[in-house]
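Before relying on records like the one below, remember that each one covers exactly one chain. Contacts with other chains, cofactors or solvent are not represented anywhere in the record.
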Amino acid sequence: MIKSRYITDILELLLDGDKDGLLARQQIPFLCDSNYDYTGQGVFVRFEHDIRIEEYRLKNEFNLCGVKIQTEEYPIEADAILFSKDGLIDYLEIWCYNGEDYPKKDLMKYTLTQNWMNSPMKIFSNETTFLYRPVNQAELDLIKQSNWTKFPARLPEQPIFYPVLNEAYAIQIAKEWNVPAYGAGFVTRFAVRTNYLRKYKVENVGGEIHNELWVPAEELDEFNSNIVGLIEVINEFRSK
């Protein structure tokens, strides 16, 4: 599985074009972004393959380019080129063409635009909103097992996932609920695509700070896939 949502977004736009691209797109779930080689002007991202990818091996080679990368974080403009080997996705090259240095990390806020000849000119922007989630130790352990990329599935008696909109509310829940019930409470912070969050109404359940979103348990996988970057622990509370 590709850990970087940024890299996944680039691949999905690059492979949303001709017949070979659409067929190769089926390989994405079986890729692992195993190596990042930063060159100063860009980065080479090399992929390892799950054995199940063999079912989707193409008979011919394919090299695809034409996704423009822009960001407000750095004064860069970049392009992406995807290379194959023996019918499988091999590596991705991202390179800056405006002379600026490429950062040695994933971009967090970016706009991707298809710009090859006769492309659909699809544009993807990942403006994000920070949310907060108080968790207990067991939940934190499961988040860690996911490499800090997703929240664990809800239990049968938990039909709703409740991320909250501010740190103060998350701290209150961690201290007043998680610590008495479990002996420890942790406040996590994470960024989610703003466009995706517009489908959820902000629910106020008390005072001025008590704003949260109600995400049905069956939508949690989709919610997790719209997290940008990693889930981080920003506060920790334990019983005395």
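The CA atoms of residues 198 and 213 lie 10 Å apart.
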